[in-house]
Structures are given as structure tokens and as C-alpha cells.
Amino acid sequence: MISFDLTREQRAELLDTLLPELGKYYGNTAELRVTPPLDIEEIGNFVRKADFRRPCDVKEAVSVVTEALYKYIVHTSHPRYYGLFNPFCRVF
Asked: Could you tell me if residue 90 is inside a domain?
């Protein structure tokens, strides 16, 4: 079983990997589309590539998650997003 209780070194590696990604996102949000095209099949294919039986390193996990967030979420922090909530959420 994999533990989510990270060591000090693992936490440092996670933050060293994640903080530049967050900086890149918030520094470039205005260049993204507010709402990406909704392609359920593409999103499903992306998610199905995950193999939860095989642990991956922190950098790989951060890379996969941030790629998905860039491509598939509504960017509510975008300067042209005026909604009070994300109306594109739906329950499957």
C-alpha cells in the first residue's frame, strides 16, 4: 500500500515541482481560453491512461494533473470570466 504521509524530502520535491507550475498558470491565465471545448471522449481517453496500480514519481503526477487542468477546466481565474460559479459542471 502506498502511503500519502510524505517525508520532508518528498514534500520539498512536491513543492519544488508544483510551485513553478502554479506560477506559470497564474502568469498566463489570460492567454488561455476561458472555456475549453468539451470533448467527453477525449477527456475519458486522457483519464483512462492513468494506471493506479503503478506508482509514479511526483514530477510525473504533477505534470499529468496540470496538463489536464490546463486543457479541460473552465478557467474561473481568467480576466474575461464573469460568472459567479462554474455553469459547465454537471453530474454524470
From this structure: no
